[in-house]
Task: structure prediction
Amino acid sequence: MNKYGLIGKNIAYSFSPGYFAKKFQQLEMDDAFYEIFDLDDISQFPDLIVSESPLSGLNVTIPYKEAVIPYLDALSDEAREIGAVNTICFDEGKRIGHNTDFQGFTDSITPLLMGKKPKALVLGSGGASKAILYGLHQLELPVNQVSRKKQKGMIKYEELTVEVIKSHKLIINCTPLGTYPKVDEMPPIPYDGITPDHLIYDLVYNPEKSAFLLAGESRGAQICNGLAMLEGQAEASWKLWQSYNS
Result:
């Protein structure tokens, strides 16, 4: 059997099992399946590896993309620079951490930029935001980051003004705010600064149009949810797993 899975917390909503079930069906892989491993604490990870062995590959999601790193044997160059892992490969008993989030992000947003290089505002400072920042730097876009707490080199939400929003034509939500079932939640930014020249991008994909995206759309902005990014990172994860298991 080829056993794959996703580790995270409160992740019953995840799209990954459905995505990979369809992939296994298309590839006629009757011996493969993908399972959710909902962990109350990352300290349960080593026991999971033992109890579920052998595993062919794992994905990692909120809130363990950073916390899982001490439990791994090695990191890819990208994962090390980003400081977050969303894909784990197994190589002769060793756990190798990779990050494919940035690839899914850059692949999904590049066509929307149409060659432009707008100043970007990244909302959130968790593991997901790290991959987005890496991707934006790969695209050579100027970036500012927003956090709830005062951190070096970051802006606090309370410091955002309409003028700041107007000057950042690309705004990316890297927080879970607005995810089902709490669909009314949205990042606390001055939405009146959003214009038809803006691109509003949300890593949230359930619902299809989050409150954040709806606020942008109502002001004429171009919007994009996180589904294409998710599909891109999942496909990149699959290719990595196959490269290790071949």
